[in-house]
Design brief:
141 residues, Histidine-containing Protein, Chain: A, 4 helices, 16% strand
């Protein structure tokens, strides 16, 4: 080679590790910057765009979820509880798994609700006693 030196094995390994470390650090930084890519996140406004209206409240999110559940006769008896500004818990009893899934889909679709805690129970499944021999006793001192 004209005017170039060839790298030795230890230099090649050293530069390879330095490049790997730089790529790893860049990947971590970019991952923290952009976060996970989910369909819900992709639908959110881009950086620099203003959201319309006041920021969501916990009570408002729960009220919207309750109103949505009231539109379905099989889900109208369910209750909602605000957990945070964009988090709602749905509780109550339904007749089958399809109704529980329908409630989750209905609330998950609502704008302004990012997290749903689905505590809906199914009659005939969740009310069966799983441990018939279990005898609970008071162990308090």
């Amino acid at each position: 080679m004209h005017g170039r030196e060839q790298l030795g094995p230890s230099q090649t390994v050293g530069w390879s590790l330095a490049g790997f470390a730089a790529g790893l650090v860049a990947g971590i930084i970019l991952g923290e910057w952009f976060g996970p890519t989910t369909p819900r996140r992709l639908a959110q406004p881009r950086v620099g765009t203003a959201r319309r209206g006041p920021p969501p409240t916990a009570a408002g999110a729960a009220a919207r979820a309750q109103a949505a559940l009231a539109t379905d006769p099989g889900l109208a008896a369910l209750s909602t509880r605000p957990i945070g500004p964009r988090t709602v818990e749905v509780t109550g009893w339904v007749d089958d798994r399809a109704a529980r899934a329908r409630a989750a889909r209905l609330v998950n679709r609502l704008p302004g609700i990012d997290t749903l805690i689905n505590s809906v129970l199914v009659r005939g499944e969740d009310d069966q006693r799983r441990f018939p021999d279990l005898r609970l006793t008071d162990q308090s001192a």
